Amino acid sequence: SVVFEVRKLLPKMKSWVLCMALGGIIVGASTISIVQNITLGVRFVCDTSFVKARKEKNHSTPLLEYLSTFLNAVELYLRESQCPKVKLVLTGVKETTEEEESHFEKTDHEFRVTLDPTFTLGMFQAWVKQNTEFDHDDIVFLLTKIIIDDHVGSGISKNGYSYFDEICSLGVGLARDSGVMFDGVVYVAQQVAHMLGAPWDISDNCPESGATLMATVGRPRGLSQCTKEALIQQYNNNANKDVCWKKTLKPDASFNWSLPATYFQRENYCSTRHPLRVFQCPKGNAKHVADASKCFMGCCENNTVDASGFKYSVPDGTPCGQGKICIYAICSEYPEENNDYQHSS
Question: Which UniProt keywords apply (predicted)?
Fold first, then answer.
């Protein structure tokens, strides 16, 4: 085979493989990896507002399992980058105290409690750097339930913040999540791409389409060409360098691979969305959704055909056809062998 011949002819050359814009690879290696990965160890730091919000919903699933599923969903939004593939490993979860948060959270209590993202991100980065427990993590994400209020920024990303193209030097991020609904997944996915050098899709070179991850509006149905090329450039620029994502020591604290749809096989999705609409609307009810490909479901106040209700988008990973799952309420192609929901049901 070609692989064998290259190994035989170049036994002493240091391995390097480049990704090309059209999806191919350039080989200059004695050992060849079929898939080129950027593998990042991610630790979540959960503040007291996040943990409290989760307890109020009385979900029985452990926090660690929620965040393991959360990170899998983040990776799902980066799936269209094939070379390199972005792989995310959960290295651990830390719950902070109010005393610890006083060192890195800048909050305002004038009208309601809000978080200043610029100050908080800078202080959080300094706090992470001082703590040796984060030494083996590539990215440390602060998750909060507090409303983020940016007084100085452009407002491109209102619920997620990080340092652009600083994955291995300033690998910290901040995102807002409810603690129960995986609503912060998209913001974390955006910030991972942002840290890897992906620009926002708002310029002439990277126009806003409303349907890409790095756009400011609309549903992120995939990655723009700009995002894909930025990830290729990040990988190629460091192909023969000893960068953070090549570290072998990445303690894996994650559970079996699953997506939010599997999580909500055990937790009540309707009551999570609304405290009164706790029943899935039955057949005959105006809010009942019979077509799985719509990626919506009706939640009702009781289990009758005339009950009042509302239609919500279904959790990511819900099957919607042969080899398809719902991703951000869009029925999307997804190979069945990767679909844990279909395997577990």
Answer: Hydrolase, Membrane, Metalloprotease, Protease, Transmembrane, Transmembrane helix, Zinc
